[in-house]
User: Fold this.
Amino acid sequence: MTAVSAVKAALRKQAIETPSWAYGNSGTRFKVFAQPGVPRTPREKLDDAARVHAHTGVAPTVALHIPWDRVDDYAGLARYAKERGLSLGAINSNVFQDDDYRLGSVCHPDAAVRRKALDHLLECVDIMDATGSRDLKLWFADGTNYPGQDDIRARQERLAEALAAVYERLGGGQRMLLEYKFFEPAFYTTDVPDWGTAYAHCLRLGEKAQVVVDTGHHAPGTNIEFIVAVLLREGKLGGFDFNSRFYADDDLMVGSADPFQLFRIMYEVVRGGGYGPRTAFMLDQCHNIEAKIPAIIRSVMNVQEATAKALLVDREALSAAQACGDVLAANAVLMDAYNTDVRPLLAEVREEMGLDPDPVAAYHRSGWAERITEDRKGGRQAGWGA
Amino acid sequence: MTAVSAVKAALRKQAIETPSWAYGNSGTRFKVFAQPGVPRTPREKLDDAARVHAHTGVAPTVALHIPWDRVDDYAGLARYAKERGLSLGAINSNVFQDDDYRLGSVCHPDAAVRRKALDHLLECVDIMDATGSRDLKLWFADGTNYPGQDDIRARQERLAEALAAVYERLGGGQRMLLEYKFFEPAFYTTDVPDWGTAYAHCLRLGEKAQVVVDTGHHAPGTNIEFIVAVLLREGKLGGFDFNSRFYADDDLMVGSADPFQLFRIMYEVVRGGGYGPRTAFMLDQCHNIEAKIPAIIRSVMNVQEATAKALLVDREALSAAQACGDVLAANAVLMDAYNTDVRPLLAEVREEMGLDPDPVAAYHRSGWAERITEDRKGGRQAGWGA
Amino acid sequence: MTAVSAVKAALRKQAIETPSWAYGNSGTRFKVFAQPGVPRTPREKLDDAARVHAHTGVAPTVALHIPWDRVDDYAGLARYAKERGLSLGAINSNVFQDDDYRLGSVCHPDAAVRRKALDHLLECVDIMDATGSRDLKLWFADGTNYPGQDDIRARQERLAEALAAVYERLGGGQRMLLEYKFFEPAFYTTDVPDWGTAYAHCLRLGEKAQVVVDTGHHAPGTNIEFIVAVLLREGKLGGFDFNSRFYADDDLMVGSADPFQLFRIMYEVVRGGGYGPRTAFMLDQCHNIEAKIPAIIRSVMNVQEATAKALLVDREALSAAQACGDVLAANAVLMDAYNTDVRPLLAEVREEMGLDPDPVAAYHRSGWAERITEDRKGGRQAGWGA
Amino acid sequence: MTAVSAVKAALRKQAIETPSWAYGNSGTRFKVFAQPGVPRTPREKLDDAARVHAHTGVAPTVALHIPWDRVDDYAGLARYAKERGLSLGAINSNVFQDDDYRLGSVCHPDAAVRRKALDHLLECVDIMDATGSRDLKLWFADGTNYPGQDDIRARQERLAEALAAVYERLGGGQRMLLEYKFFEPAFYTTDVPDWGTAYAHCLRLGEKAQVVVDTGHHAPGTNIEFIVAVLLREGKLGGFDFNSRFYADDDLMVGSADPFQLFRIMYEVVRGGGYGPRTAFMLDQCHNIEAKIPAIIRSVMNVQEATAKALLVDREALSAAQACGDVLAANAVLMDAYNTDVRPLLAEVREEMGLDPDPVAAYHRSGWAERITEDRKGGRQAGWGA
Assistant:
């Protein structure tokens, strides 16, 4: 029997990284709806992230996106974060928003463009040195839209070359997290389309290269928890970009489209020994139509709830049912945990941490939304393009 | 045996409408890559469309998108088109790019927003009166991102109410083409997500309401030619928005992802009596990374090639094989037509129409690309947002 | 606020029909794994169904499948059911397992095959007269595997003709439930592939023709609750075939793959006024590897749990949040109900009905499994083919 | 410029393996439609395969499936094949049709079942020794239907253990081809669901372990040619199981659902140096409703046509267009080859090989179908279960 106190202890030390860009405006190709109070600077994003952490207690780090969060003084930004109880997390590179990248970045047919992209990636490692970040997250929009447009295999060679150069540059405690994505913005081939491709590259690179699983980046029907189990078995699961979707890379709040899937994923994390600091648990979402800060709080809570349920699985009973091939009993053990209402347990955990048991209500009462709506008038709101 | 001369005659009178917005910039949510020479005004878009028609001979009309093509004098714009051998085609409404439309347009919970959206739709009919356009194309981005966000059924009521008001306003020769889309930009529910929903609304409205099939707007694996056959049987196929995709609504050049599917669609059009002016054959594509005008020329040619193959199907032999249940023979008759290289036939058709047999090469030789690159410096390039 | 007593009352009168064939053997094209104790006759299937009803209290009817449940005396079979506290439910026709049906049944190119299929459907109505069944469930395996194999539209005509003949034969209180399916066993076209096609046919036929939604019969990503809402609005939702799936028509236990989806479906049923005897709630599943009777009990419980959560939604609060466009609040109201652990509530309902609060445990204690394993040796086990 | 004579030479030496089981009966879970003249023994299957080779000239080997093709004297069977101009190809293991395999084979929780499955695999290597086959093809139906049913990771361990034991047993020139499959017959997890999992296992095993790509075994939308390119780059592409599909693992005739995809796959094979004897090109199809032998002939021809087009791609022009980033020109080079009608070229190739230019017509004229219909009366027709 899982002791509730052990579950609580595990939940207290949970750490979910929020992405700086989720505090800014985002949208679809059809329209970006601006929201009042959106941050205009990296520091204002950190201010918002600090609210999320203040109310949840489990969001102590913030991922940066370069160049969207470019500042002159990264060490200064790190100090700013620290003063607010935060630290800076993964550095996310961006090699898809320059006009030069129309046909790709590190996989581009033109060596000059590849060089430019590589320089950006290396710059990101410089930034990591300054911020003290452990993880470099690499997502490449590279791919092609039309059969024949470029040579699939040559692009793999170019990719491998760039990755090797970046890997070489990594310092002692630093890691490279390679993200894969099924499609978008490329619509025919994507150069890192699946976990297998990411895995194959990471394997050649070495131990510091790890695969990151974005929960919205798979073909329809893909069993994500299986991938998690396999990557953990291979020692190659670097972390998650959490979000959810009904269709493609919808980037909805994690757990909002299929909470049962999120639970199954978290169960494999726990079962495979991946619940701990070696695995980066990050959100990567777009709050296009809903209020951003409470949506992020809600997302953090959704991950907490899935984790709590995963931790509550009676693994001894599960193993016993599995061992004797009792399909229904084994499934019932798992569902028992899933069907448990863990909100009271999490309310207790929060109270034990000195927090309000209802983070969303506490946020709404805090007046923060009204304050930033008032204070952040004028200037240019942060968004994907800035 | 299908007489080649009849096939040629049918191909000569083909009409494929090009969309004004495909001449402007487009992209994904990640980046819009601007291209040199892109039109800055509706008139410049018509200039480009005139080049497509000049080289292909089968693209005589241009669809407008309001407000992207808003002008003071629509009759004047129609005259401008006529002077270039074109006429104005379908009017496409846009009720998704105003901040008010964050939660929908005609399905919005707020009656004031619905009224605003309806007014826009009615304005589009006014524009049709001025341009002489027959078809009002309605695509609604309306939907929700999260379960519970709004009431699915209430939104249908609101939709029905708006459609009825627009239908009422249509003049004698005017039609309403209702488009459906599986998802995007809404990621949980879409208010017109499938042909069934569009059909049910059109049925209640009356004969002037017809369904338009966008070839990129279906769930994975959907058999589009089946839908075409059924809609033609029901007298409810108003037209097509042509494009192609490997994944979601990729908006690639029609025929580039699955040319066999395009052939099968055109075969059902021909077989079902839908090849003629009652069916609107329109392109609706995004040329995000490729040169726009030659991409549109190529797209028009792709539709021509699929049509030629569809017209070449030996329907007598096909019926005979079908009637006796000879699966392989029936399939072989269809494949015979598909496997035919129809490019020489189309080259002949073009020459008989006084055109260059190779439209892409002729376009490249024409110097138009160089000219617009030079002439259209400065100003603001057209795009989805303007 | 929803009164718990009203919720309990609604749960007590719930009725979930179990399918006779789920008690027999089933499998995939690769292998049917026989299980001990499987019924050999329709009466033995009813014996098992009676156990499910005895333990759950909400499974009072059993669907028959003809010819799998063919008997000489249907009135006698109905009496046999009645003696066990059951009544006979929907009659399911089968026009796909005769060698004649290789290329279809009512859509077959050969009129003689069509006539044979139609005769079977009419026979099913005769059986309904004898059993007192209200609903004739029609699922057609008809379709084609290869482009060109048969004429899509001609098959629609043949289908319409057969449906009209069956409709004509229906008695006063009888209904025809037309089922659609995305694919399988046909792999290119399916003659009733989506709700739109089923709806269009039912509309022409009249009020007694209704659409049945099998939850495993949709394209990947399809929003089923939307279809439910639309069909209820149109007065055309006849019922459900419940099961669940991760991939295609997996026919797993309902609620086992995506319990949140099942909840959303049941919410739309409740919201749209579909919770009542007019809607047929049936299971249609295959218990290929798990013990059948407890799997069916579990499935019934899964529907109960989803229904309880749907009934618990605070619709007033939901409407209020929806009306003011508060995306997160509206979503939270729905999720509140979903996240509730309704198992204690259902245990109370069962106790109030004089039942064991834990139907699965009660079944296991009952000794039924051991008894049928012993008693049903020899003979030929029931399965899809018999 | 590709010299036509080189293309012809390449086409003449093409080798496409046909599967013994495709000559037998097959079907869906709903029905197996028996066909007249179907073989009753492995030798009769070889007789049919000899006809396919006689008419096409490029189908010189036949894959066996154990136990469906179990005989007492495999060397004798190999001689029988040789006398008919054939040789025996890959040995396909079957660890999914015994009652013991309800919950898996080499991944089963029970060690005794795993041992039984392993013994079968080792027996298959014995058979390879006798037949002189190079390739052992491993497809595992292993997986689970319900979350929690078994431990995902433990099953990977068991799988790895079995694969290692088989690998150890392989002789000098022998290889193990590991097949992956998205789903079916398992509906929740599949133990080798994607190329990444197969690749990871093969990598650990060594050079004799290679991945086999079944073209019907992917998630919707998966870019198969990308996987081909990547596996060739990694030296891990062992071969293909060719078939085609619109939906899931439909097992239709290769090239019938998406001929353009087949061409793209063959292009990557050619481009990546995979066109040659190291890559096993096998059919794996089900001719459920169409005549089997002509369907197989047609399938062989479809592969030939796709190969011819792939060989005709002007790779120099393609590289040039790719190098300068001319998206449309590069796509046009590829499409030029695809749009070519290669049937006249293949007719010439056949005539140069002393064959009838139209293999299907020649088969129909040969009287073989009538002869086997007459001769093979009585006895038990071969099928998946025997």
Notes: The longest helix of chain B spans residues 111-131.
